[in-house]
Structure formats: structure tokens, C-alpha cells
Amino acid sequence: MTTVGILGAGIAGLHLGLALRAADVDVTLYAERSMDELAGGPLLNTVAHHHPLLERERALGVHHWPAAEFGYRAHHHWIGGLRFTGRFTHPSCAVDHRIYLPRLAEDLAERGGRVEVRAVGPRELGGLARNHDLLVVASGRGPLSGLFPRRPEHSPHDAPRRLVCAGLYTGIAPAEPAAVTIGVAPGQGELLEIPLLSRHGPVTALLFENVPGGELAVLNELSPAADPALFRKTVLAKLHEHHPATAERVLDAFALTHPRDLLQGAVTPAVREDFRPLGGDKFALALGDAHVVVDPVMGQGANIASYSAAVVAREIAAETVFDELFCRRVARAREEVLLAASAWTNLVLDPPPWLDELWRGLARDPRRADEFTDNFDHPERQWRLLATRSRVRAFLNS
Domain Styrene monooxygenase StyA putative substrate binding, which positions (predicted)? Predict the structure, then answer.
């Protein structure tokens, strides 16, 4: 029987493990920390799961949070004074990963996958590879962060383009209809307002994407634990000044749910090599954040990680030899979607002047706004529409 070792217990590693167990492949998942520690720890992200990911959950039997009950069906946009709404064909859903990941780890263990809490560094990879036919590295943080070299032709940034300040809040009246609100403050950054199911119940996630050195960068310097009143006051002031579409629905009860429900940091986008030889005809295959890291501004990270895991699982189940030829076939199979999501996200982080034409066109044409929104499910389609000024104009005039 084929045996696969997976390093990393995020959505990429867990979706891969579950898909492999469905194909009767032996799986050991190596987690950097226990699921109890993760569940009680600080906020991990504020990701939304789009329809293709939810369909994979259904196929894997882990769709525990039905989008019909917990999801939303639209994006409201506020971009430099322009307002428009785009609607999904199928709903998306956001669930706190401190709930989501431990539940999927339970599912994996119940289906015969082994979950082992173990820190693995580069020096341990060779020894670990002897226990498995293939190692899949799905952790892009910690000691394995530089394992796979960057591909400079697809990695234009060597530093973060945004400072991330993401938190869970109560006291914000929901948008009508239920939706993610995407606010763009030109020159200052973006705000994603996301209805999210948390351990506190339904809350609102505010994901500030702040330009370094800009007027909202102060949000990354304040601690709600050290001075909760100052933090709340500053968030409210910045909302009213730069993101009025959200500020107009803030209630007197507005508050961060808990100091641990805040994530402050930054992401350097990168596309890395697909695989690495470990010696002795063994290879490590990159997955998730170890392979492609995108800024969260377009909400693609978890979705492309799950997509990549599905591709890798399909290729493993169809193969018995996991050599360089196998690794190169995996790279070709998943490349279009992953590179498209990365390129689209980078375009938004450094918007060309003609991107304003897109926003104005979408505000005029609800059908195009719906298509643009639906393509959050399909980054390869989105990139074909947005890659150049000519493509944007053809999309708007089609």
C-alpha cells in the first residue's frame, strides 16, 4: 500500500489526508501543535470558503457547516465612492479555522489516518522520507518556510504589500442581503467585512489590509489586551474615515470579541518550486502555503490550498511511483489555477491605472458585476478577464 506523510495540519494537509483516505491510501499527518492547542489559541485567519471548496467538503463528507445556513451569496463593493453589488451563483461560507481544523482532524483520525504531533525541521526530512513513499510539505511557516525556492518570475514582491489586522467583532448590523463587504480606500488599503461563524457564534470579521506607512497602519501597532479602549476608539475612527460602508452599520455595542480574536501581521506573496529531491529517489512535494502564498485581500488562500490538495490526491491515487516525473505531472496539473490566483491578487495589491475602468464598468453593469463575483470561485477565469487593459475592456464590452 502507498504511504504518504503530510507535514502541516492546515486546510491543505487535512483535505489531502481526507481525500487520500477516501482512496484507501495510508496517511500520517504531522501537526506542529495539538488540535486542543490550536482550538484555544489566537485567531488563525478570516478565510471564506467558496463553492468549489464547499463541494469538495461535501464529497469528503466533512461539510459540517452548511452554506445554506451559515453562508452568504454576494459581495458589496465600496471603491473610492463607487457602490455596487455582485451576486454568486452558489453561496460561500466562512468558519473560524479554530473550529474547522480540529473537526476535520477528528474526521481524519476516525477514517484511519494517523495524526502525530511532531515538529519537523529540514534535517529530519530525509529520515522521515524513509517511512513513506512520498512526503508532502503543507506547512510554509517555521523551520520549513524556506524549503522550496521562490520562483522569481511569479514572485514580484520581496516584502509585504499590506499590513494585516484581522479581528472578530460584535455590534455591526449585517449587510442586506448577507454578504461580504469589500471596501477600498485609495492609497490606504482595503477592508473585507465577512460574516463568520466563530466559537462565540455568528460574528463579523473585519480584515484590514493596510498600506505600510499609511494612515491605517497604526492598527497594527495597538494591542487590545494592553489598552482595549484605545484600540476600539482607533478602529472606530479609521472605519468612519476610510470605510464608511461598514461604519454606517456600527452599533453602540461594537467590540472585539476577545483579545485573542485578533491577528496582526503581514504576508509576503510568493510562488515556490513544486518539489524538492530528498535523496534516495524520495521527493518532497510542496502544498498550500509551502507552495503558493497569496495576500488575503482576494480571499483565495484556503480555496487554492484545497484545490491543490484535491489535484495532488487524485494524482497520488492514480500512481505507484513517486519520482520526478510524478512531481512534474502534478505541477502541470495544478499550475493554471494557482498562478492565476497569485497573479490576480498581486494585481489588486499594486493596481494599474486602468483598474479604475473595471470598477466603473462593474458599477454600471450588474451582469458583469455578478460574473466578476462568481469568478472568486474560478481564479483562472478571473485572470483571463483581468490580466491586461485589453482583456478588461473586452470583458466590459462583451
Answer: 140-249
